[in-house]
Amino acid sequence: MLSLSSLTALVQVVLIDITLAGDNAIVVGLAVRKLETKQRRIAVFIGVAAAALIRLGLALIATQLLGIIGLRFAGGLLLLWVCWKMYRELQTSEDHDGDSNPTSGGLRSAITRIIIADLSMSLDNVLAVAGAAGEHIWVLVSGLAISILLMAFAATMIARLLERFRWIAWIGLLVVFGVAVELVYKGGGEVLGQFS
């Protein structure tokens, strides 16, 4: 039912989505920046579809996820691995500046990175959205749909920017690295808290 509390929850969810979708969009943009236009669209579509399924699955078990100690830590480690792969790709593209052809495994590699990064980064987003939505299931579903649309739109724009201005890719990598370090730090604190 439409009520003041559900509308308030929806506004909160939209604000959370706008705030948190940027990190995911940067990862997607970095992952697809070297692909041809057609492959870029495919990678963004598959990556965003996978993100939708991941977030829906996480949303359904959001409250149970809060009790799993070490989940954020593991997600941070996965994201650090994604950062390392992106760093190596950026280094290689700087070394071969004139070579604009993507590698043969470019599409599969981009999709894999998008899925792993989204799995690592979605937990905070889903938990924040689930917390704001409360008992309003339609608000939760709407919020997840909005975050996926924002990520797809922003990722396409970011990929175009990265294609024109390569230095932005390094800034994007730093942003993603910062998120990974934050996840490792918070998750590590949770794990260490269990032993004290």
From TrEMBL:
Keyword Membrane: yes
Subcellular location, principal: membrane
Gene Ontology terms: cellular component: membrane
Alphabetically ordered keywords of this record: Membrane, Transmembrane, Transmembrane helix
Transmembrane segments: 6-30, 42-61, 136-155, 167-185
Compartments, as annotated in UniProt: Membrane
Membrane topology: Multi-pass membrane protein
Protein's UniProt keywords contain DNA-binding: no
Top-level taxonomic group: Bacteria
Pfam families: TerC
InterPro entries linked: Integral_membrane_TerC, Integral_membrane_YjbE
Family: Belongs to the TerC family.
Name of the protein: Integral membrane protein TerC
